[in-house]
Specification:
single chain, globular
Amino acid sequence: MMTDEQFARAVHGSGLVTRDQLKDYAAQRIAGESLARTMLRLGALPPGEILRFDPNALDNGAPNGNGGGVVPTNGGGAAAGNFAFAGPGNGGNGQAAQPMARQPAQPLKARARLEATAAIPANVPLEMPAEAAPIGESAEVGLGANNVEKIEGRFIVEGGDDNDDDPTLAPVVQWANEMLKMAISMGASDVHLEPNPDGLLPRYRIDGALRSGNMLPVEISLPLISRLKVLANIDITEQRLPQDGRFRAHYGKRTFDFRVSTLPNLHGEKIVLRLLDHSSLVTDLSKLGFSKGDEKRFGSMLNRSHGMILVTGPTGSGKTTTLYAALAASRDETKNVITVEDPVEYELRGVTQTSVHAEIGLTFAAALRSILRQDPDTILVGEIRDQETADVAVRAALTGHLLLATLHTNSAVAAITRLQDMGIPAYLIASALEGVLAQRLARLSCRFCRQPISADEPELEDWLHYFDIPPGTQLMRGVGCEHCGGTGTKGRVAIVEMLEIGPKLRRAIMAQKDTDELRRAAREEGFTSLRDDARTKLLAGYLSPTEAMKVLVGHED
């Protein structure tokens, strides 16, 4: 459980509240009441946001000023809103604490070395209704759908020459550290820092949707952006051109990579950070939302000694996550596995990983040609973007290698016509292609607050008709609670369609049939579409109809 000081530092560092607001909340505390409960009582933050910082903040017996909390100073006490931070050993032994009101130029800053704690997703099973169709063997389904647990330990940035709990750190360093820890605690995949005339607006992408924090002061904007550019080894003097970089941080026993991208705009530079948690790599396909049948078919493809397997979908649909899970499931010490990516996102033990460097001529196609001379068994190509890469990939699959790759198409069947459009002969596609997996990511209904949709819902009839569900069938959706921050959704799950290339479909490809005829041939061999998989998850209660409709917009069925 966080102390009041740790909670205040985390909330303030996220930009959700200002220092003056925290002083006001502390002044209105009731005797024995924690700062978190005070902010809840005053409506400063919803329960869900409070629990993102500390999952035990609203438990009975939460700590207040003892053992390193927010304590009143001698200049009027809590009633005057004058408070300071005291670390362990300072809160109850009579030692003086410095009032925060006397430090207008500093952020919430500890006066002693503190062990930092925050909340990050942990594995908690998603309960399945008795009538639900089984999604894999495991009851744990979805990414980020679980409760939270605490990380205990220090936050250290590699190459930053700093320590999170060093009281001598410059204020901007603590601002940056608190913001990064806040992003981790909320399970954010990206952090957007958007400059405007009023300051710097932080926005966190959680479960695919952006959520805004409070505006950071103008004075901190440029120093904070410069701090992040220094960590990412980006030229801080160049503000006219986009730049890219990365850095690594350790929080407790976990390791996080941050990919940094800058973009000049009217009011300065916008920075976007992509968070990659090394410990969050999924190696169990059932946790992604694969049904037992799809998982079995996909596993069968991965066990083949040669051929091409494609994963398709728009940007942000989880293609890389699925490919990594496939590699983790199929690799062993007897195989030589090599990847070429742009860039390498996660490090995999036992796998040789190569990054594309187009500026020096190391493209996907060039790297793939070199990989073929490295005696590979399995090859992963981050993306097939052009005819040259597609041609080398197809020929690699025909010469005794298992090749995995991603492709940007709206459906699994469309991947076949996309390869044809790239100039790959139909007979080569029919010979090399073993299967295509198309997928989307949809937000899961919160398991704590999902409820049946009323029969009076105006759009219910349209939903049932679109998904070909019998009238009167009960559908579920989240209504919002403290666990999901009032959004009604928590975590995401993959909606997939698995296209396994059978004899009839191979003949249709050889005959260069159009997409509709290819889909009919696939249906005859047991193909199920994205809409079919969405229907299964709707009936299981995992998805709300609105979320399912969002991800299926533009899908070719």
